[in-house]
Design goal:
Blueprint lengths: L1 H23 L2 E6 L5 H7 L1 H11 L2 E6 L3 H10 L4 E4 L1 H11 L2 E6 L7 E2 L1 E6 L14 E4 L5 H13 L4 H4 L1 E4 L3 H9 L5 E5 L2 H4 L7 H4 E6 L3 E2 L2 E4 L5 H16 L1 H11 L4 E3 L6 H9 L9
Helix pairs in contact: 3-11, 4-5, 6-13, 11-12
């Protein structure tokens, strides 16, 4: 009998040890979209994940998807716990898996909004939006707010039928769309304001060779979105950790270098309502993510 009791105690102790080990090995996965070269981003983001790991007391790992929808799907499947995603991608994630927004990124001016721009080459004959008809346009990604949704809606307002009046391609990134324009592979490129300055090391002659044709309406900034089934306490912890990191000298520098973010402010679903109305004007089925 004593032997059985001892064995039971050993098993119970072993179970507690395993439980503690599993708890220590818990990982929170932070997702990103390709706002710059994906391979570089994976390496560069490690200092940020380390800072967040210290703030949360749990290991944080970076997850970089090949496109915007990758993080949306990751949030839905549980492969990603939270991520930095564009506003349209947030709306898709919210519709598909009840993902929630906790923070909005701030721009250089301390605002939680930005705009898209239409770029053309200075030697181009395109001087107005009516001149776009019959031309080739580079959008960024079908799930990009500033690289497709808002520029597309603006073109429609200008009386242009996207499917009939222009030819278009997806560059796969704001830098890629700019590169297509500089290489004369397209006549117009859509990017955030001002991608030419953001990527001046890669394209030092972009400002000299291109000009802005026009701008879209203002767009809510990049969101920090958490998976839909995350408990409130963890959401609050992640929000506070990011706010603390953004306030630190090292964290502030990293966010600027990696994502051109200058801090965060708290956000709610209502802040992204304009995304839904713009999507409707583009006949985008949010439930299908098209």
């Amino acid at each position: 009998m004593k032997r059985i009791i001892i064995l039971l105690l050993i098993v119970a102790l072993a179970t507690q040890i395993v439980g503690c080990t599993e708890k220590k090995e818990e990982v929170i996965r932070m997702g990103f979209v390709p706002m710059q070269d994906g391979d570089k981003l994976i390496e560069s983001v490690e200092p940020l994940t380390e800072m967040l790991s210290k703030e949360l007391g749990v290991k944080v790992e970076g997850f970089t998807a090949t496109n915007y929808v990758g993080v949306v799907e990751g949030l839905g499947s549980g492969q990603v716990d939270f991520g930095f995603i564009p506003p349209f991608a947030y709306v898709l994630a919210n519709q598909e898996s009840n993902a929630g927004v906790i923070l909005t990124a701030l721009n250089k001016s301390g605002e939680g909004k930005y705009r898209s721009q239409f770029l053309v080459r200075k030697d181009s004959e395109i001087k107005s939006f009516s001149d776009i008809k019959g031309r080739k346009v580079a959008f960024v990604d079908p799930s990009s707010t500033s690289g497709y949704l808002f520029p597309g809606a603006h073109i429609i307002k200008e009386g242009i039928d996207i499917e009939k009046d222009i030819e278009y391609v997806y560059g796969g990134g704001h830098d890629k769309a700019l590169q297509l324009l500089l290489n004369s592979d397209v006549d117009v490129a859509t990017t955030f304001v001002d991608a030419r300055d953001r990527y001046k090391e890669d394209f030092p002659d972009a400002m000299e060779k291109t000009e802005v044709l026009g701008y879209t309406d203002y767009i809510p900034n990049i969101s920090v979105t958490v998976r839909g089934n995350m408990d409130k306490e963890l959401q609050e912890n992640i929000k506070n950790a990011l706010l603390n990191v953004a306030k630190s000298e090292e964290g502030s520098k990293l966010l600027k270098e990696l994502f051109n973010m200058y801090g965060f402010e708290e956000a709610t679903d209502d802040d992204y309502y304009i995304i839904m109305t713009t999507a409707e004007s583009m006949n985008v089925d949010l439930k299908e993510g098209n």
